[in-house]
Specification:
Elements lengths: L2 H13 L3 H6 L1 H16 L5 H13 L4 E8 L2 E8 L1 E4 L4 E3 L6 E2 L4 H14 L24 H5 L25 H10 L14 H15 L3 H13 L5 E2 L14 E3 L4 E3 L9 H4 L1 E3 L1 H12 L6 H7 L11 E5 L2 E10 L2 E8 L4 E9 L4 H12 L16 H7 L1 E5 L2 E10 L2 E5 L7 E5 L4 E4 L3 E6 L4 E6 L2 E7 L2
Antiparallel strand pairs: 1-2, 1-13, 3-4, 5-9, 6-9, 7-8, 10-11, 11-12, 12-13, 14-15, 14-21, 15-16, 16-17, 17-18, 18-19, 19-20, 20-21
Length: about 475
């Protein structure tokens, strides 16, 4: 309900009283009016505390990114911290026009297009994949619904790693990508297990192209982007272009930022190649729930959650409330799109530098929004004595990897120097023997065994200190 309607009803409440009654009940009416009008507007957002939270993240180099909070289709709060481009000569601040790679939030768009095709009778959720891609292993057993729910058994495929270069940065044709998926061994028999699969949503992109006779990019533009009037949302097809407000991805190196290599968007396609802004992500999900993209019946099917997934959608709990949406991540980009249907409330966040966990940032945003207890983190390091730090200083090697890492101390900090890097990076202490570059690695020392274990998102490896 718009604000002027609320004001009208509050005024009408007073006008139904006669002048005498109004005089007799002046104070009662006044407080009733105040109560009713305040209730209509809802609880105000503590914008000052949100600002303090993001100021702290910014000051401590714990995040770079953009946030939009929208309600009833209108932006209530937005904030931008950090940079979309950093080099020795220039820095480009993030703004409302900054465009981010949103990763797997692309899957919501893809699932919505699939549901549109179902509504038009061009596809059935229970029909088998062999109608479209008979060459796929188990195609006669896999249904479109299995793929949407991550129950198809289609494995996540990767190109063979080239030691000389990062193959993810190189373009790949659709034919090459499909051949990789077709040539891979299924993870399991269809509908026997649940396992999140990016490759499965690439397959949905191929299905969309087979049915429509158009490219996925054309279909996306016609059926969603142009339909709801998005101006800063599109499928990435080439390298990042900062002149078009596209932002680069960075890793935190203590007090500095290091640009990361770009995964080529042809690797991501219908599973993760969309570029957008938080405001347009919010507009998309509001349109989805308003019935402007798919029917109410289709939306209800998308919202049926089994084993943590709906159809291109997943649930989140923030401040004791259930939101629906999706997350995304590629390189060091992160995105989170969450919608609370009963309040038409959207939290839309994008980052080009995941440092402090994105989930914790969203938890903080929700707690502040709903006036829940929330203490803004100080991000103060754990104090470790120099005597203990000196035990960790040295060169570490492993017979499993042809690399060496050097640990040095300066004052009350220790520094981590990977091979090939020109300068060491400060490690942040989180306990007496555990340190981190937040969002990147955790380094754990065992001085009695002269060991250093480096833990990353995709595993860990132990190195031995050289004498």
């Amino acid at each position: 309900m718009k604000k002027h309607y609320k004001t009208f009803y509050c005024s009408l409440f007073l006008n139904v009283l006669s002048p005498t009654e109004r005089m007799k009940k002046l104070f009662i009416v006044f407080f009733l009016m105040l109560s009713l009008c305040r209730a209509g507007y809802g609880q105000p957002i503590d914008k000052a505390k949100l600002d303090q939270f993001f100021d702290r993240l910014n000051d401590k180099n714990k995040a770079m990114g953009s946030l939009v909070i929208a309600k009833n289709g209108e932006i209530q709060y937005e904030r931008f911290i950090g940079y979309g481009m950093i080099n020795v000569n220039d820095k480009k601040l993030l703004t409302e026009k900054s465009r981010f790679r949103i990763g797997s939030i692309t899957k919501m768009f893809t699932a919505a297009i699939i549901m549109q095709l179902v509504e038009e009778g061009k596809l059935k959720l229970n029909e088998n994949l062999d109608r479209f891609l008979p060459q796929m292993p188990n195609a006669h057993k896999i249904t479109i619904l299995h793929i949407l729910r991550h129950r198809s058994g289609i494995p996540n495929v990767k190109r063979v790693q080239n030691e000389q270069e990062n193959v993810n940065t190189l373009p790949i044709t659709k034919e090459e990508m499909l051949a990789l998926i077709v040539g891979a061994t299924p993870d399991f028999e269809p509908d026997t297990r649940h396992s999140y699969s990016n490759s499965a949503y690439l397959v949905l992109g191929f299905v969309i192209e087979k049915i429509t006779g158009k490219s996925y990019e054309e279909v996306l533009n016609e059926r969603i982007i142009s339909k709801i009037g998005l101006k800063d949302t599109y499928l990435a097809t080439g390298n990042i272009d900062v002149t078009k407000n596209e932002v680069l991805s960075y890793m935190n190196l203590g007090n500095a930022w290091k640009q990361l290599p770009e995964t080529h968007p042809s690797m991501l396609f219908s599973a993760g190649a969309i570029v957008s802004t938080p405001a347009e992500m919010a507009k998309f999900i509001q349109a989805l729930f308003d019935g402007k993209i798919v029917s109410k019946s289709s939306l209800e099917q998308m919202m049926v959650i089994k084993e943590g997934d709906g159809l291109g959608m997943e649930p989140f709990t923030f401040a004791g409330r259930t939101f629906y949406g999706h997350t995304g991540g590629v390189d060091n980009y992160g995105s989170w799109l969450a919608y609370l249907p009963e309040e038409q409330l959207v939290f839309s966040y994008t980052t080009n530098a995941k440092v402090y966990p994105v989930g914790k940032i969203l938890d903080g945003i929700a707690d502040i929004y709903f006036n829940k207890p929330f203490t803004i983190p100080t991000f103060e390091s754990f104090a470790v004595s120099t005597e203990i730090l000196d035990k960790y200083v040295g060169v570490y090697a492993s017979i499993e990897a042809p690399v060496k890492f050097t640990i040095t101390r300066k004052g009350e900090e220790i520094f981590f120097k990977p091979p090939g890097e020109s300068a060491p990076v400060a490690l942040e202490a989180i306990s007496e023997n555990r340190f981190q570059i937040e969002g990147a690695i955790v380094v754990e020392f065992d001085s009695t065994k002269k060991q250093m274990t480096i833990k990353r998102r995709n595993g860990e490896r132990t190195f031995i200190k050289e004498d």
